[in-house]
Amino acid sequence: MMPKDREEPMGEFRRDLDAEDSLHVPHSARVWNRFLGGKECYDVDRSAAADITDICPGMGAAVRQARGFLVRAVHHLAAQEGVGQFLDVGCGLPMPEVFPRPYPDRIVHQPSPHAPTPWPATHDLHEVARRAAPDARVLYVDNDPVVGAHAHALLTCGRDGVDFIDADLRDPGDILSQARELLDFSKPIAVVLGAVLGHLGVDPLDPHAALTDPQQARPETRAVVDALIAALPRGSFLAAYDLDGGDPEAREAMLVFCDHGASPYLPLPRRLFGELFDGLEVLPPGVVRPEQWRPLREPDADAPVWCAVGRKL
Ligand SMILES: C[S@@+](CC[C@H](N)C(=O)[O-])C[C@H]1O[C@@H](n2cnc3c(N)ncnc32)[C@H](O)[C@@H]1O
């Protein structure tokens, strides 16, 4: 399963991958793009996605459900909670246009009186936020250079109030100091963490140890989230989702991903995911599967993902 020219897993999230390395090692942003129906991925990513699907056949649907949650959560925050600033850390690649709409054309449960325009063709976070709040500011953050190149070309590209910074979630102080230049920290900000927390807190030299013990404490993950939330004013939000570390198929699938040489991903079980919202007011319906978070139609799947939105009081 390991790429032929590698003797050991990559471990740490490598910032020094060159284009040649990239061809041989799957990357979570590109594998996610594959699951979402995009084409911004290499053979290694397609092969990793196929092996993940062999172990966890519901993974593709889970990723799409999870993105659907993010779209509904961002729409809700912009349209109903008056949030005008979003900090999307681990933003990933731009959304493929083929991504199926996670809602019908007519919004049923969350109508926005300020959103007369049609839904955008794609569901990048700034498009969803700006549909409800046209002046919304969005700051995308990622530590992957390929993601950065796509973000500059397709997400920010001269749009006022939409920016990208190259920063690492493991250094929340750096994210915050760069973000202060671009966002107004006297007004509410929604921090968005979509399928990125699992990259934290894994020993790169022994990723399997952590992956086989899902309940293992995750002090780094907790510290990073706490540091981000502490810097926000009251009335700010955390919107997050992650794979369910308590689901044996999802966990096994991430072991396979890791064995492909990818940066290890350790999914969070419900208890650890829920603890990230300690001290916040978790919006109804709570910590749930993505298809249960204010669904626009009957839930039809049980994706191995936890998601929630919390308000800083
Ligand atoms: C699985 S993708 C999720 C993309 C997007 N948030 C979504 O929900 O579709 C994980 C993203 O997190 C980024 N990432 C991983 N570790 C990171 C870190 N330490 N700091 C910043 N970004 C990171 C990856 O580059 C990738 O774009």
From TrEMBL:
Name of one Pfam family that matches: Methyltransf_19
Q: What keywords appear on the UniProt entry?
A: Methyltransferase, Transferase
- Write out the transmembrane intervals: none
The protein's GO terms of the molecular function aspect are:
methyltransferase activity
The record, for InterPro entries, names: SAM-dependent_MTases_sf, SAM_dep_MeTrfase_SAV2177_type
Q: Name one GO biological process term.
A: methylation
Protein's UniProt keywords contain ATP-binding? no
Q: What is this protein called?
A: S-adenosyl methyltransferase
